[in-house]
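--- STAGE predict ---
source: upstream dedup step, 1 unique chain passed
mode: sequence only
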Amino acid sequence: MSDAPALEVLQTWDALQTALGDAGAAASLLSEVHPDAQVREAADKHSQDLDAFATDLSLDTEIYAVVAGVDPDGLDADATRMLDKVLRDFRRSGVDCDEATRERLRELNRLELETSQEFARNIREGTKTVRLRPEQLDGLPDDWREQHPAGADGLVEVTTDYPDSIPVRTFAHDRDARVAVSSASLTVAWPDNDAVLRRLLELRAEHARLLGYPTWVDLDTEVKMIETAEAEAGFIARITDLAGPSAERDKQRLFERARQDRPDLADVDTADATYYSELVRREQLDVDAQEVRRYFAFEDVRRGLLDVTGRLFGLTWTPVEATTWHEDVTAYDVELAGERIGRIYLDLHPRDGKFKHAAQFTLVSGLFERALPEGVLVCNFSRGLMEHSEVVTLFHEFGHLIHHVTAGRQQWQRFSGVATEWDFVEAPSQMLEEWAWDADVLASFARDADGNAIPADLVRRMRAAHEFGKGFQARTQMFYAAVSYDLHHALPDDLTERIGELQRQYSVFAALPDTHMHCSFGHLSGYASAYYTYMWSLVIAKDLFSAFDPGDLFASEVAERYRDRILAPGGSRDAADLVEDFLGRPYTFDAYAAWLSREPGTD
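--- STAGE serialize ---
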């Protein structure tokens, strides 16, 4: 047994992890968002140094002996859980391996981080540009075209950044334009990241073998709700089968519409899928995305998001002046019942060298009576009118921020914020998306230039249109999940060839030739083999939402119970127990299966 008191040992360890975690969080954030490339590079180097130190700690046999010698008698439930998690982390680090193996694991940790950073950097800095004739952009919104004038050569420059590429893929009537932009987006970081990803996969495979696991997937799933690689493969297969009828039904509808323009069309590929989905929604389901976007001016949406989430969870967001990394960033202090509980930062517009997707970053982990949590939302939205899909994304990502702040009153850093099992992390955010589809909620902030609120009938039609394609979207998600799983389960000789095989197996849409989506699939860096977690979480999110009254989404009793029983505990309890505590029963597939099988527009 350790000579030091058990609680003192754990508190010392947790204080050290808090300092490391906050330093690493700041470095990780700045490497993705700072406008100065030299600062981004320095932040990457700091991340490497911090990770190396953390690895040294996890492989230090003397420190491990002290922690392993702690007598658990007398510890409360939280401290006992903390001890169990720390000992498990030590074991998974390889601390009980022989010295030579520990040294190799130390080297692997360093190489994996550096390779992941290289993979992400190539995506972040690999923006591609396509030059198109103005007439090829017929169908694009007027405000988009005004923001993209032709250059001296008479051509319009379109980048692979989301505010450029998604509207072209959605609205451009010219197929060649859609193919050009889609292909460019699917070849970002090619060929560089092909070799980088292969190296990363090889490192992870060796890491898992040294720890006694057959594959990286076996190592990764052990600490998640799903628990095993076999269960992950089974889940992907189950969703694929469940989504099949809906996917084929909606694809056929989309295919028939596409053949009106191209009678000789044999199949629908990824360059046509988004465009013809939009046409079906506009022509057959009476929803025009360009009409819808008139109601979603960015500033109104941001203000509405804060109002809605504040009312729902009893939070107050107060703008504050704060030193930030860019003038676009806004900061807010967060209060609950008159008490300040944290601070958030919103960095919501694209710029060169910035993270290209949407994510919540931790800046400071909250600790009860010791530190207030701080979190950052990083997105890439237009400064003008937004697509409704972007509004949904904003609600989703903001859900992570709420989770981080409301769960920031833990006794242990190990359980602070979004610290649940990784395959539960997305569930609260996916559930919050439901508020972005409610007519009353949207009417509170979605207004056109004349001040008219978005009509309830339009929102009803938007929901029906949104549900068109949910089956083939689920199949696309399972394609991504299968890529994530498969590449970590058995490394193929040719990554592009294997990706093509998986797309044909899981997606209902044909791939574009000479594309290499894995090179810009950033989740392979952060989520590794666990992309399935998005769908796993969605299944739970649909079940969580079943507890709310669709006629009154602001009912305080259920909203507060959700806040206090799902969000506030952070990682202090297993996710399955949190859900059961909130729902009064274990979670099931029932709500998700019913939603997936329901035809668009039906109740």
